[in-house]
Amino acid sequence: MRKDGHFDQRLLAFVTLGLVAFGLVMVYSATSAAAAVGDGDPMSFLKRQAVYALLGVVVMVAAARFDYHRLRYLAFPLLLVALGLCAAVLAVGPEINGARRWFLLGPASFQPSELAKLALCLFAAVYLARRRPPRTLGELVKPLGLLTAIFCGLILLEPDLGTTITLSGMMLAVFLVAGVPVRLLLAAALLAGAMGMLAIWVEPYRRARVFSFVDPWSDAQGSGFQIVQAMIGIGSGGFTGAGLGEGVGKISYLPEAHTDMIFAVIGEELGLFGSVLVIGAFALFAVAGFRIALRCRDPFGKLLAAGLTALICGQAAINLAAVLGIAPLTGIPLPFVSYGGSSLVVLLAGAGILLNIAVNGTVVQARVPDRRGRNSRTRQTGARGRGGAARARGDGDVRRVARPRRVSAGS
């Protein structure tokens, strides 16, 4: 486990840092021309993104060295903070491009929905690790289904459909790993899908996005403009691309080239070769993340690793599908690559937690019986020579039976 854990840790750290560095290059490529015309400094976007990247890497290293078992004590407070911020941004957040998603703090901004992803994943892992998986729709709804619905409702009001879909996909992965029956998950997915279709139908701009996805060329200068320009950019890149910094779509044709649509810039400038490398990097991240979840012997760590991996890779899949024209546009960034501070810092924190689980996944929380025989299931540690079954200390006692290892992002 330790050798495999260290390999997965190194692979995950290498892929994550590689994507962050690559993202800085592409953000500069996508924004330098517009920034030079706008404020005279072609590196203005790059400088801001570099600050967030540095902060995110510091947070990732700190999370990689912090014993993830202790995160269970932060789950409920973090959930309350995220819920309060998601409600507050609707009331006091400034309206930007018709949406209230951010708090502005001087030159910096913060998006509460990004924190909500991490908070809900952590709380769900804590809750499901200590209980049997839900077997009925009522058990699924209370409390996790209800909490998910509340967060999704608040985020839809911002409005932000893409984050809502990402949040729902993450929870679906956590429920699946926890052992919830597939038939129950299908029923919940159908219910969530029906609510999603209703949310799309009641908003004219969302309906326009769906119709433009079906036939973007029918209104190439209107609702289909963004996806048409993305297709043109990716298609014109060929195998090797026009060259780094040589793309023209980002200058005056492709909206949001440095955020939601940055993959179209990659396709135009680096061609099929660069696009495949990016997709391959996220595939490697998924393999490493799910291997960590599979090998983890602690139920809490297993659920948390699966949820974080599904969050990052699911968001990447949604973004890539939208840019490639195989799904409607949802307006979410490409993890680690797109411009955006809140998303970058929060997702790097999630990657740091995964790095810690990769090595400390052998440290098991053992549930032992009391004198009357309740909670009779006992978990053994996976580390040899550091304890067998834990001794009883009362009803539902939870006791650590192996010493965690302190790890670094690159160890």
Describe this structure in words.
By secondary structure, the protein is mainly alpha-helical. The protein folds into two domains: 72-334, no CATH class; 363-411, no CATH class. The chain is built from 13 helices and four strands. Strands 1-2 form a two-stranded antiparallel ribbon. A hairpin with a 2-residue loop joins strand 1 (103-105) and strand 2. The model is unreliable at 366-403 and 406-411 (pLDDT under 50).
Summed up:
By secondary structure, the protein is mainly α.
Whole-number mean pLDDT: 84
**What is the H-and-E element order?**
HHHEEHHHHHHHHHHEE
Helical content class:
55-70%
In the residues, how many domains can be counted? 2
How many strand segments? 4
Strand order of the largest sheet: 1-2
Major sheet summary line: 2 strands, antiparallel
